[in-house]
Amino acid sequence: MVEISVVVPIYNGIQYLEKLVSCLKETTIKKIEFLLIDDFSTDGSYEFLERKIQNDTRFKLICRDKKSGNAVSAIKYILPYCKGKYFFYLSQDDFFDKDLLTKLYIKIKETNADAVIPNMIWFKEGENNNMILPPNNNYECFLNGSEAFKLSLDWKVHGFSLRKIELLREVGFDDSYFIGDEITTRIFYFKSKKIVFCDTNFYYRIDNINALTKKLRPNVTDFIKGDLILLNFIKNNYYQDTLFFENYDKFLKKTYNFLKNLNKENVIFNRSEKEDFLYRLNILENMIFDLYIKNERRGTFSWIKIKFYISKLKNINSSI
């Protein structure tokens, strides 16, 4: 019987796959499956994995019938087919200690928690790397859902955890924007009753210049869309709490700076991308304006500046 399902979306990551497969094969827990979902790689990633995992029944290599373009879609697709009671996700360039999954599994069984969270190391080759540790470095502490959710807003509690798959299926994944997994993780924490921590290391790579989140594409607006969805979730659940207003003000400032920087870079997309970008900008503008109006025009000056930079981006991308 499978206890843990490990999911890894794959796309043109061949330079990292040797380390990935080695990391997965060395894990010490037995009742496990590794689900690798390839999104029509063009660099030989699929063929490389076919060779590396043959004769290892723990691995399943899947190629979907059409290209999805983001990792969240791959996770959403595979979730109904996961056989494990617990779920773990990583990117193709991440890795972890060989006993990480064993330690997380033991801890989640002992505590009956909804999720158990390891240390997370922001990994950059050849550098001293920062870590995210439990609150007050206390591995015996546990958090309720609201506490974990609040700490996850600025990732003091990060998103790479071993989770109960039953609750995860209840929460689901929104793949309509490419950072949907970040919002899903926070909502999962909110709906959890108990979150615990474990002293073992997960390495989150930040030096991959080809990562999807580092490429400038029309869906760059998804960063702001994700913040808006999260802000509306906070509003619906914490409106009488200062948490909403604190994050509303942070959102306006962050959005203004984000759009200002896009304008500084003079972002102009090619002909085929312009229509998509302008469509996304219009949706974003309406979402921001709707939130602004509903909050009695709080942050008027910031809204005016945001409106100005959205208009500039529209103008420079409107000419054919």
What layout of secondary structure does this protein have?
Blueprint: E1 4-10, H1 14-26, E2 32-38, H2 45-53, E3 59-63, H3 71-78, E4 86-89, E5 95-96, H4 100-111, E6 115-123, E7 131-132, E8 142-143, H5 145-152, E9 162-164, H6 165-171, H7 180-191, E10 195-205, H8 222-238, H9 242-264, H10 271-294, H11 300-318
Parallel strand pairs: 1-2, 1-4, 2-3, 6-10
Antiparallel strand pairs: 4-9, 5-10, 6-7, 6-9, 8-10
Helix pairs in contact: 1-2, 5-7, 7-8, 8-9, 8-10, 9-11, 10-11
In oligomeric terms, what are we looking at?
Answer: single chain
CATH superfamily of the largest domain: Spore Coat Polysaccharide Biosynthesis Protein SpsA, Chain A
Q: What profile does the largest beta sheet have?
A: 10 strands, mixed
- How widely separated are the two ends? 58 Å
CATH architecture of the largest domain: Alpha-Beta Complex
Which series of helices and strands comes N to C?
Answer: EHEHEHEEHEEEHEHHEHHHH
In words, what does this structure look like?
The structure is a single chain. This protein has 320 residues and is an alpha/beta fold. It folds into two domains: 4-205, Spore Coat Polysaccharide Biosynthesis Protein SpsA, Chain A, CATH 3.90.550.10; 216-318, no CATH class. It has eleven helices and ten strands. It has helices spanning 14-26, 45-53, 71-78, 100-111, 145-152, 165-171, 180-191, 222-238, 242-264, 271-294, 300-318, and strands at 4-10, 32-38, 59-63, 86-89, 95-96, 115-123, 131-132, 142-143, 162-164, 195-205. Strands 1, 2, 3, 4, 5, 6, 7, 8, 9 and 10 form a ten-stranded mixed beta sheet that branches. A hairpin with a 7-residue loop joins β6 (115-123) and β7. α5 (145-152) packs antiparallel against α7 (180-191). The longest helix is centred in the C-terminal third of the chain and has 24 residues, at 271-294. It is globular, with a radius of gyration of 21 Å. The protein starts with a strand and ends with a helix. The model has no long low-confidence stretch (mean pLDDT 90).
